[in-house]
Structures are given as structure tokens and as C-alpha cells.
Give the backbone structure.
Amino acid sequence: MGWNDKIIAEFRENNGKVGGRFEGAPMLLVTTAGRRTGKPHTTPVIHLHDGDHYLIFGANAGRDRHPDWYHNILAAAQVTVELGTAGGRVEPFAAQAVPLEGEERDRQWERQCAIDPAFRDYEKTSGRTIPVVAITVLDLAADPHRARMIAEQLTRLHGNLRAELAAARARLDEAGARPPAPDLLQQLRRHCLTYCFDLQMHHTREDGAFTAFERRFPGLAPTIARLREEHEAIEKLLARFETFLDRQDTGTAEIRAELERVVDDLEAHFVHEEEALLAATENA
Ligand SMILES: [Fe+2]
Ligand SMILES: [Fe+2]
């Protein structure tokens, strides 16, 4: 387990608190979509609370380049943040991340340096203007129509995810009963990896949006708990499918059958999710 992973695990276990170098510092975890891979990328960062926003700083511990999360945010502003809560456990929140500019950036940067002088040192050693990013958590109470828009958007995204799986199935059907050619396996592996990242990112974003739905529609809590469990089950199934593709002795029919299991569970999940979220937001 790497250094970042240890902090992430400690953060999640202790309702957002970590020891060592970050003892007592206000922390959050930010998950961005990797700008090249689409893979979820989680980083612990110190934050400064400012009214409705959480401000985070691309100090990258004084290195001479901006952190990956910052580049990812420039490519896609939609992020998930994890925060300790009054309920005593870390929860994920869907959020938008926007870099501050000009005087506003400078003012907030000075505030942070006054609170934590280590940031001044980071600025000096990095030789960069450190980016300051404002994170705004999705609040469905503030914008009632937003819930409906999100439910519809998720349904559309499911359409794309369904189509990709159908394409993988079609390729296997073309191969028929013949043993899979090495290039077909290669293609499937590549396809599967991209697909896994897309789906992981989709689930990460949903987990954050679910928190906002739970707060807006408290009656949805049991359904959402089940949808979150389904996300975990599907991740495991996909990981299993991946290892299955790596085996040397698998036939086309076996791969097809294994893929069918993924498709069935995923389809059932999509249907549960669409029904629950569209029904909850029907009159929004
Ligand atoms: Fe979904
Ligand atoms: Fe989902």
C-alpha cells in the first residue's frame, strides 16, 4: 500500500481525521477522472472552508509541477469529494471544481498561507503560482429541478454503457464456437479495461450524487443503500471477468457466458436505479 493509499484508508476509517504530518489539518479526499485513462484518481488534500465552498490548493508539496488532480479538473470539473460528517462517518459528495483567478485567487492563497505557513514554503520551492480551486458540493434543496436533470442524465449515460457491452457481445458472437483468436482476446481486454474505468467513474459520481438525493428525499435511503451495494457487487464481477480474460485456456462460449453474467447484473442495476431516481423526481 502506497503512502497516499494509507492516508486514504485512515481518512475513511476515522471520519476524515488523519495523523502524522496532517494531524489536526482539515482534510478531504477529492476524486477526479484521469484525463487520459478515465480512471478514478483519489487524492487527500488540505482544505480551507469558505462559506459554500471548500478551497483546495495545488501545492503538490512544493514540487515544480501542478498535481495530477489539477490537470484532471481542467479537463472535467465534475468531481467527488469525501468529507467527515456529523453522522460520524465519511460520505461522498458530488461537486464541481472551479479554479479561482486574479485577486480572488490571491486573497484566498494569502489566507491559507497565514493559517498554514508550510504553504508559503511550498510556493517558494515550487517556483509556481499555486492553483487555488473552489469546490462546490451539489445541493438539490437549493435547485429542485436539478434532481430531475441528474436522474435523466444518468439514464442517458446508461444508454452508452449498454451500447458498449452490446458491442463486446457482438464481437464474441462473430467468433461463434471457434476458440478466441489472440487478437480478439487482446481487443476484449483493452475494451474491458476502458469499460471498467468508465463504469468505476460512473459509480463514483453516482455515489456522490446519491448523498444529495438522500438529503433531498429521505425516504429513498433504503433504496440508495441497496444501489450502493450493487455498485460494489458489480465491481467485483467485472474484476472477475478481467482475470477470466487473462486465463490461457478459456473458450469463446465460456467468455460469452461470463460476460452474460456481468450484463445481466448490470442491466438489473440500471433498471433499479432509473426507476428509483425517475420516480423520486417525477414532480420536480
Ligand atoms: Fe448508473
Ligand atoms: Fe449505479
Q: What stands out?
A: The chain has two domains: 3-137, 144-280. The radius of gyration is 21 Å. The chain is about 60% helix and 15% strand. The mean pLDDT is 91.
